[in-house]
Amino acid sequence: MRIFSISILATVALTCLGLLMVFNTTSAEIIDKGVITYIPLLRQFLHILFGSVLGWICYVYGYDFFLSRGGAVYVTLLLLLTCVFVPKIGVYLNGSHRWLNIFGVSLQPSEITKLGFPVFYLYLLKKVNQKVSFKTFCLWQIPLLLPICLILLEPDNGTAFILIVTLILLYFITKVRLIYWLIPTAVASVSLLSVALSMPHVTARITSYLNPESDILGKGHQAYQAKIAAGCGLFFGRGLGESMQKYHYLPEARSDYIAAIYAEEFGFLGIVLLVSLYTLIAAMGFAVAFKTKDIYAHYLVVTYTFIISFGAFLNLGIVSGMLPSKGTNLPFFSAGGSSFISNLLMIAIILSVYRKSTQEEKLLGGRF
After folding, report:
1. What is the pTM of this model?
2. Which of the residues 4, 46, 228, 265 has an alpha carbon 20 to 30 A from that of 251?
């Protein structure tokens, strides 16, 4: 029960801190607009309730229920990703087709794809009994790369990047021969990098990443303001509610850059706590992965743990200025329903693997 309890407590702690920060950043809007609006806080709270219900359902049904239905999961993902381009169903916002509007409820299919993508891959792997020939590997590329291409068309480059890295991880941990994917990946990476560097907007983004002050009113604005926020926090922080950057100095304060406001108010010690909570979740996830006797459960838990941890790494790296901006949410912390629910379902499925493993251990008279 130790792994179960620590995983739940770390997730709850991150969620509560995130809820506090969403309310905190919303207060700046209340002061600025002169009207009381708790809609972002209420929306996040509803996401938590809805995600908890779905998480419980996933926990009860178990991971094997979803792995056995990988084909249906894949078709559902493709349908959702295609619908974002359909007028009146898909929502065009900030230059992107990333959201669906279903009876007034917003859904971001690219975030849900993080949840279903590994399930479909393992479904394919199970079909060939882990024996991946070169012909099989080539045939897989069309269905595996199709959802990534649809996400790139939205465009949602941050999520597409996470899925590409996830796919490489899956190739590696499932022992697909390196010659099948390593050389093509390297060639494609070099080719794409060469093409990207020839594009003016890409070079402008790289310049603003390396030197945000060069375009302080444009692409470098968020990175520059995030550095100010984090730097002002020092060791102990300004104190809860005392952030100055949340007063419209820092855009996306509730989502992509919420960690910068948190760093300003809670300082270095607060960031240490935040990183420690993500480290606990990662440690518990890998502990479950290496204890389960089901090889497909092992692959699934390793992948889900990686996706959550990698998402946290990317967001904190962007906020600190170590990485260029990619529009990546901080798991369980940033405002955003689809991202929160997707991450919560990953935790629920990981815990369902733990539950089945403990049951098997008890039947064998062992201890987990």
Report:
1. 0.92
2. 46
